[in-house]
Amino acid sequence: MKLQTSFLCIIVIIALVSTTTQSIRFEIESGHTKCIAEDIKSNSMTVGHYSIVNPNEGHPLPESHRITLRVTSSYGNSYHSSENVQSGQFAFQAVEAGDYMACFFAIDHQPPLKFQVEFDWRSGVAAKDWSNVAKKGSVDAMEYELKKLADTITSIHDEMLYLRD
């Protein structure tokens, strides 16, 4: 039984680390919507960064490449809204647990065009900016890693209690 619990903890750690550390890139067509959901625990910090990928590197981004983003909870509460932007970011503390939706609306353009959006959404332990914690606190590398691990362990413990309920 102890071996199974240890194995489950390792799987949870790998899942937490692997799914929360990479940004995604997707294509959206003007006049259309693309939504991404994230299951977030209550009282968890969440941060997001989004930007339109420039198709012509070295040149300014075309004016036609604009999006509107709305982040809402499963209860319909709005946590972020930006209109007609090329990039942005958001951060909030989740009040209720559940699925949060980030919906990207591409501004309608004639003729229709497609462009790519890069989106990085992190919550819980992954949302903390550990490099700034290390700089501000003047802590050495070992203390920094221990604080990071302690926070990860607390998050895993909370998640296991949540799953048990």
- How many angstroms does the end-to-end distance come to? 20 Å
Beta-strand residue percentage: 35-45%
Give the spatial strand order of the biggest sheet. Answer: 1-8-3-6
Number of helices: 3
Helix content: 25-40%
Radius of gyration from CA coordinates: 19 Å
Largest sheet: 4 strands, antiparallel
Shape: globular
**Number of strand segments:** 8
The low-confidence parts are 1-21
Compute the average pLDDT: 79
Helix/strand class: alpha+beta
The ordered string of helix (H) and strand (E) elements is HEEEEEEEEHH
Explain what this protein looks like in three dimensions:
It is a single-pass type I membrane protein. Keywords: Membrane, Signal, Transmembrane, Transmembrane helix. One of its GO terms (cellular component) is membrane. Belongs to the EMP24/GP25L family. It is found in: Membrane. The protein is of the alpha+beta class. The protein is 31% helix and 38% strand. The chain has three helices and eight strands. The strands form two sheets. Strands 1-8-3-6 form a four-stranded antiparallel β-sheet, with no helix packed on it. Strands 2-7-4-5 form a four-stranded antiparallel β-sheet, with no helix packed on it. It is globular, with a radius of gyration of 19 Å.
